[in-house]
Amino acid sequence: MTIDTGKVVTVFGGSGFVGRYLTRALAKRGCRIRVACRRPDLAYHLQPNGNMGQILPVQANLRYPWSIERAVQDADHVINLVGILAKSGKQDFNSLHHEGTRAVAEAAAKIGAPLTQMSAIGADESSDSVYARTKALGEKAAREVLPETIIIRPSIIFGAEDQFFNRFASMSTLSPFLPLIGGGETRFQPVFVADVAEAIAMTVDGKVATGTTYELGGREVMTFREMMDLMLTIIHRRKRFMTIPFKRAATMARMMQMVPGAPLTEDQVKQLRHDNVVSEAAKAEGRTFEAFGIQPRLLEAVLPTYLVRFQPHGQFYRKGPLLNETAEGEPH
User: Fold this and answer.
1) Strand ranges in 40-176 using DSSP code E only, listed in sequence order
2) What is this structure's pTM?
3) Spatial distance between the Cα atoms of 116 and 189, rounded to a whole number of angstroms
């Protein structure tokens, strides 16, 4: 589908995982896209194919309102994808998810541009997770400034560059076991990144109701363990599962999170205590992929396309169960 809109769209965080798919979807629509990020040099890989829209990386930092205002100048639509899973220096949850989102909304309001804000399923002002709490505060701030803000809340996102399945598949090539925090019973609704990107792009088309919060989940609800089982089946590896109780996992994460690039933080352990699926209210009110007319792709149909490199040499994915053992305790 190619729609020549000619719109100028500023995408904050456009050089990231979701951003690269979103810029592609917007380029196909003939949009002129400003990819606003702290390191514009990291966005030069975002080049459109053929006769599509233009992509221009621009420098912006959500901690500096003047840079946000410069990035949105004359834009027809503003999209904010910025989000972090762990604090890094001055880039903390509150400054980006909460205050940064407010600054983006204020800049969009100043020029009269609509705003689409990407949040996350589980965003909750009363959550004990600072990630979930600041995501909710960001939503609230955006709506206080621009009541018509469209909020997109996806469940866990998968795709070729994801940091979830790729990380655990890589771990499976090195470790004799895989950890199951809290027994791996937390439920998710994994959603393909290109489907999320298409939904966000459709908010620029003006095809969905504004001032609405949409929850995007895939066609399957799966526990953490079920996702690990599927991943191991696809890469044709057998691993033991090591159950780690939440309390013990929090203690381990507290020690690890001081190390740069730590695989797990205490805040992520808190998030794993809660299911990450589309709410019954969103389903009843049609605030899901249904509103976009999108049939989300199946996890099992996409994972083999990019996890193939983790398969042992000469092995190929064969659909069917691969039994993996569960061990109680903690790694040693």
Assistant:
1) 54-59, 77-80, 115-118, 150-154, 157-158
2) 0.90
3) 22
| Cα–Cα dist 196/193, whole Å | 5
Whether the Cβ atoms of residue 97 and residue 87 lie closer than 8 Å to each other: no
CA distances from 12 to 34, 116, 136 (A): 8, 11, 18
What is d(CA 222, CA 219) in angstroms, rounded to the nearest whole number? 10
Burial of 196 (0-12, 13-18, 19+ CB in 10 A): buried
The distance from CA 228 to its chain's CA centroid, rounded to whole angstroms, is: 19
- Does the pLDDT of residue 328 top 90, yes or no? no
b/e per residue 271-280 (b: at least 16 CB within 10 A): bbebbbbbbe
Q: Which residue has the higher pLDDT, 51 or 94?
A: 94
Contacts 24+ apart (CB under 8 A), 143-148: 143/211, 144/102, 144/105, 145/102, 145/105, 145/106, 145/108, 145/109, 146/105, 146/108, 146/109, 146/114, 146/115, 147/211, 148/114, 148/115, 148/210, 148/211
DSSP-derived letter for residue 85 is S
The length of the chain is 332
Identity of the amino acid at 255: M
Beta 222-223 vs 187-188: how paired, if at all? antiparallel
Tokens standing for residue 185: 């019973």
- Angle at CA of residue 260, ends 252 and 85, nearest 5°: 75
Residue 25 in tokens: 């979807």
CB 181 within 8 A of CB 269: yes
Q: Which residues are CB-contacts of 312 (< 8 A; sequence separation ≥ 6)?
A: 236, 237
- The pLDDT assigned to 321 comes to 44
What average pLDDT does range 101-127 have in this prediction?
Answer: 98
Partners of 32 in the β-ladder: 8, 54
Q: Give the mean model confidence (pLDDT) for residues 117-139.
A: 97
Per-residue confidence at 1, pLDDT binned at 50, 70, 90? very low
